[in-house]
Amino acid sequence: MSRVNKIATIRSQLRAFSTYAYLFQQQVADKMNLHPTDFHSVHLLDTHGEMTAGSLATRLNLTTGATTAVIDRLVALGYAERAASDTDRRSTIIRIRPASIKRMKVNYSSLDEKIQDKLGQFSDVELDVIERFMRALTEL
């Protein structure tokens, strides 16, 4: 297969995986009674830790007003909590509640096992390439 065809095949498979991941995340969000944006907020707070509402807004690419609505929903559903900042009394910190992460991770466990099985099929050299490629994708 030519380089052009290989790249086209990889791009096509990335689109297919992206669709699969989006639909899977939507199913998990539905199980958790979360809007997709709220679900991504939970994921961001789990991945990056507590942050200000402004930081969350920036990461979500939302206005501060829309982010406040997201935070209000997360707090009302018990997924997050607001706390006063230790360093800036004008600022509020948004924290994920650990129990909510447990629920999310339970829903992801089947996918995590499948991914682990697939990755186990590759050599260490191949895993290095995959890791480098995935890192490059997340830096887009």
Task: Sum this structure up briefly.
The protein is mainly alpha-helical. It has 6 helices and 3 strands, in the order ααβααββαα.
Structural overview:
The structure is a single chain. The protein is mostly helical and 140 residues long. It has one domain: Winged helix-like DNA-binding domain superfamily/Winged helix DNA-binding domain (Arc Repressor Mutant, subunit A, Orthogonal Bundle), CATH 1.10.10. The chain is 71% helix and 9% strand. The chain has 6 helices and 3 strands, in the order ααβααββαα. The protein has a 3-stranded antiparallel beta sheet with strand order 1-3-2. Helix 2 crosses helix 4 and helix 3 crosses helix 4. The radius of gyration is 18 Å and the shape is elongated. It starts with a helix and ends with a helix. The mean pLDDT is 93.
How much is the radius of gyration in Å?
18 Å
- Return the CATH architecture: Orthogonal Bundle
Helix/strand order: HHEHHEEHH
The strand line-up of the biggest sheet is 1-3-2
Summarize the biggest pleated sheet.
3 strands, antiparallel
Our measurement of the CA-to-CA distance between the termini, rounded to an integer number of angstroms, reads: 27 Å
Specify the CATH class.
Mainly Alpha
